[in-house]
Amino acid sequence: MDDVETRELRYFVAVAEELHFSRAAQRLGIAQPPLSRAIRLLERRMGVTLLERTSRAVHLTPPGEVLLTEARSALDAVEAAIRRTRKAARTTPHLTLALKPGGDAGLLRTILDRYAASPGAVPVDLAFRVGERAAMVRDGRADLALLHRPQNDLTGLDSDALHTEGQVVLLPKGHRLAERATVSMADLHGEPMPRWPEARPGVTGHPVADSNQLLHLIQLGRLISVVPESVGEYLPPGLISRPVLDADPATLVLAWSQTSTSREVAAFVRAVVTA
């Protein structure tokens, strides 16, 4: 089989995500007939049917579902390789650290000071994000990230633990558990929980995009949330926190790409983790 081009993978991903050739063509900025021909050619070259087409709908076949997952990963890897290559060519190297506001367990200043004191330290840019920190490292937009285990999906990343703490549940005042000094995970069964964009596969819940949205929904009584105890120290009016005695500990980790060859990244990890 001839090599598949990244252009063909982009075409297929657009159709597979839109499940509509006209919308996919518009998204790609091309006409529909060339897109349809390209997908048929890709199917012939691979020897499989990727899409089931009817007069009313387009559906992914099982091979198509596999290719969608693999194509996304392949395209992300290509984009990451390009970003890292361009970054390596810069005459003035620097690092980008992605983190969630308030998600550093109070360690950010110490982390930056430790690295700044190491030989050959380069400038560190901070990228404050909630929902895409791990993705930023995977695709090369960030060199490192502060994430939480087990809450975040660390697929494709290496990591070292920096700090482990217990977890608390955030509740609105007047909640049925508000009078309890502590709670258990069983007490929280059936309560509406959030789902972050970077949650591990299989985690369900109400989608939330940022911390402000989460806190507002909790204040309204729409959600509760289990978070690291350091997050529960600074709450707006109307919210309370209670320790969850049997919740898995939350571990703050420093994460970087498994494929990273950056000397600066390696130096940052050594300075921060081994200090």
Structure description:
The radius of gyration is 23 Å and the shape is flat. It has helices at 6-18, 21-28, 32-46, 62-88, 108-116, 133-138, 211-219, 263-273; strands at 51-53, 58-60, 95-99, 124-128, 144-149, 157-165, 167-172, 194-195, 206-207, 225-228, 239-243, 250-257. A five-stranded mixed β-sheet has the order 4-3-5-12-6. A hairpin with a 4-residue loop joins strand 1 (51-53) and strand 2. It contains eight helices and twelve strands. Helix 1 packs across helix 2 (21-28), helix 1 (6-18) crosses helix 4 (62-88) and helix 5 crosses helix 8. With 275 residues, it is an alpha/beta fold. The relative contact order is 0.14. The model has no long low-confidence stretch (mean pLDDT 89). Helices cover 36% and strands 21% of the residues. It comes from Micromonospora antibiotica. Belongs to the LysR transcriptional regulatory family. Keywords: DNA-binding, Transcription, Transcription regulation. This is LysR family transcriptional regulator. Residues 4-61 form the HTH lysR-type domain.
